[in-house]
Amino acid sequence: MQLASAVLLNYSQPLFLPFIAWIWLGERPAARIFPAVIIGFLGVLLILKPGLGWQGQAGWAGLAGLAAGILAATSMAAIRRMSDTEPTVRIVMYFSVLGTLVSAFPAIAVWQTPTPAQWWALFGAGGIATAGQLLLTRAYSLAPAAHIGALIYTTVLFAALIGWIVWQETPDLLSAIGATAVICAALIVVVTRRQRT
């Protein structure tokens, strides 16, 4: 998959988050959110293209990206729940330890010792990711989960720019329309949440 499409599916959590937050946290979404969610899901279908030659389109990569979006929405709701009793640093520590444990087993199966240059790159990526996670966790503790989740869509714009510069990726028409629909749906969710609060 192209980088922007993969990131967009990974960041489809605002479509799922209102419902997860409703079931788990009791944060009932406004009725005006439902049309936006339908638009967002139609956009996801345009990106995945399930009926247009499955193996030639998103395939398992698309399903993995969509599953990541659902799991990310669940983790955002969990952060919102934990922020009532846990400080930001402790929540990030829980996330890091759990993520390390879950990813350690597959990593061992294909382990290759990094070169010194790769170690520096890994340390840099880890430092930036930790700072980002601390700031994101703090944001979730200060505002409704669905509100913050939708603001993450700036990541898709950066991913599209990087994909275009590094790999000369340009989205096809259906993916571009789908991405626009998903981003517009997320913005509608943000505006609706702001008006309600």
Automatic annotation (TrEMBL):
<protein>
    <submittedName>
        <fullName>Integral membrane protein</fullName>
    </submittedName>
</protein>
